[in-house]
Amino acid sequence: MNISQNFDAGNIEVVNCEDAGNIQLKIRADKASDFYQWFYFRLSGAKNTPCTMRIVNAGGAAYPPGFQNYRVCYSYDRQTWLRHPTSLYDGVMSIEFVPEYDSVYFAYFAPYSMERHADLVARSLLSPLCAHRVVGKTLDGQDLDLLRFSSDDAGALKKNCWVIARQHPGESMAEWWMEGCIERLLDENNAETKKLLSQCNVYLMPNMNPDGSRRGHLRTNAAGRNLNREWANPEIDASPEVYFVKQAMQEIGVDFLLDVHGDESLPYCFIAGTEGLSNWDEQKQSQLGFYKNKLVELNADFQTERGYPAKTPGTANLTMSTAQTAQSHACLAMTLEMPFKDTTATPDETYGWSGERSKKLAHSCLDALSSYLESGLL
Ligand SMILES: [Zn+2]
User: Which CATH number fits domain 2-107: 2.40.37.20, 2.60.40.3120, 2.40.30.170, 3.40.50.1820?
Assistant: First the structure.
């Protein structure tokens, strides 16, 4: 019996793997940080053997309620990720599982590897609609890929709409969302896409945190920085990811920003606005309300009843991407949250919240953007 994690986005520490009935594991904390919750490992050599895997430090994870009513993702072929129940007792999360094959993978959510990221970027660039640039390098020396989708050469005259994903690398659903977004933007036969790309240039950062992604981090980059707390004054040697993207935004301009995330605990899809800005007003509220209500119309998985409470004006956290960008560029900026578990109103017994559902939500978000651009509220 063997447990391994030495691969792209892998994360687990083996405490004891001698007894199939009591396999003890620990999640490794992000480098130079106390955050941990993302895990991804392979169990091999246990075909037809009843196994109990215990993650003994689950109670000290960044969001312990995330492991309540949680169903782990597992896959035999690394393509299809299914769900399996877990239990949480006294800070220990247990998975009881009988593998049907010689090897099985377990992960906090369906992983989105850096290899898959490279495939996604390469595939995008085959389209004449897509242009690419490396805005900078990470601390581990990886490229920070920025994609621009535009349907004609008058690009500079159009609105510039940005979507960034995976500032928090463990939130892999954010890059599944991006894959759906890109597939939709590349669909030249889709009338909605055509209309959208005639209205605006779409700038995408499919992965804001390649180092954290490859290292199997939950929340930080290679220097232990939480990128979504770095937007006020990013330093080039500690959070180059934010430094370079903020610089590109300054140069290109921003008329709209969506920052895509996953929430460990809340079983809903929702949007958080920037109500905490000191100059929040009725116009900004109607822009935010329009986008959210449009998305409710378009996608049954999205809702506006539950989410984070809105901040009161004057209490915005300007270290976050949305507040900082809304303030600097005077535009609508929102955080989109998807669940790690599932949506309570539209549950899926087999897959829970999944890469596929994240991709569909991206399609709806693009359609909502198109309506927003047409609304005259901008
Ligand atoms: Zn996040």
Answer: 2.60.40.3120
- What's domain 114-374's architecture? 3-Layer(aba) Sandwich (3.40)
Ligand 1 center from residue 133 Cα (angstroms)? 25
Question: Does the structure show a pLDDT above 70 at 154?
Answer: no
Question: Residue 368: exposed, middle, or buried by beta-carbon count in 10 A (0-12, 13-18, 19+)?
Answer: buried
- Cα of 93 from ligand 1 centre, angstroms: 22
Residue 336 has pLDDT above 90, yes or no: yes
113-150 confidence digits (pLDDT tens): 999 999 999 999 999 999 999 999 999 999 999 999 99
Distance from the alpha carbon of residue 317 to the mean position of ligand 1, in angstroms? 15
Quote the tokens at residue 182. Answer: 């890109």
- Global pTM reads 0.98
Residues labelled catalytic:
337
